């Protein structure tokens, strides 16, 4: 992966809508990927990645009664470097709260959802990757289906979490499914760096997409930048639009 690919406006939704690679992806049933008796484990680098990457399929799994385990690796406190409005101390409290509200908006059963916070430092996960792998392994079972960010997603934490999750899943014999999140920003519509042969679409109904949109808007900190220090919003409107297509993609 090239250095710092998450710059500029990125690939537009319109460009992705014209992608022949994306158009010809086979679709799959999430309830077959997570069969009855299996647990879905969602490993998110930051509090919001679980909604951005798989907010739709989470709704389907919850409605079907599949057990869910969420692991938030960091608290996302490095999203606004240098900001007096969004300092680290505020973000470390606010971002997990935003995530909880987003999951409530998705209709997830928060009373029964098992949720672990790893406490790893935002933007520095790679430095403790081996430790993270051991941490994740402790909470996995052989019949789990693990969802995490793609190992080549373009953000240092996403990639480190993807690698650590892949190794932990391998050790216990769990199934790994990877989610592109920032890939939609830096990749070109026909980009050969994307493993299209492994990609599958999970189709989302209009109500599922609407709830996902509502959930994304719980992340107030990420929808706001800080002009005083030259920070644009992390979740600018074009970023949000790309993540709200009528499907989600997993790499099997």
Automatic annotation (TrEMBL):
<protein>
    <recommendedName>
        <fullName>Acetylglucosaminylphosphatidylinositol deacetylase</fullName>
    </recommendedName>
</protein>
<dbReference type="InterPro" id="IPR024078">
    <property type="entry name" value="LmbE-like_dom_sf"/>
</dbReference>
<dbReference type="GO" id="GO:0016811">
    <property type="term" value="F:hydrolase activity, acting on carbon-nitrogen (but not peptide) bonds, in linear amides"/>
</dbReference>
<dbReference type="Pfam" id="PF02585">
    <property type="entry name" value="PIG-L"/>
</dbReference>
<dbReference type="InterPro" id="IPR003737">
    <property type="entry name" value="GlcNAc_PI_deacetylase-related"/>
</dbReference>
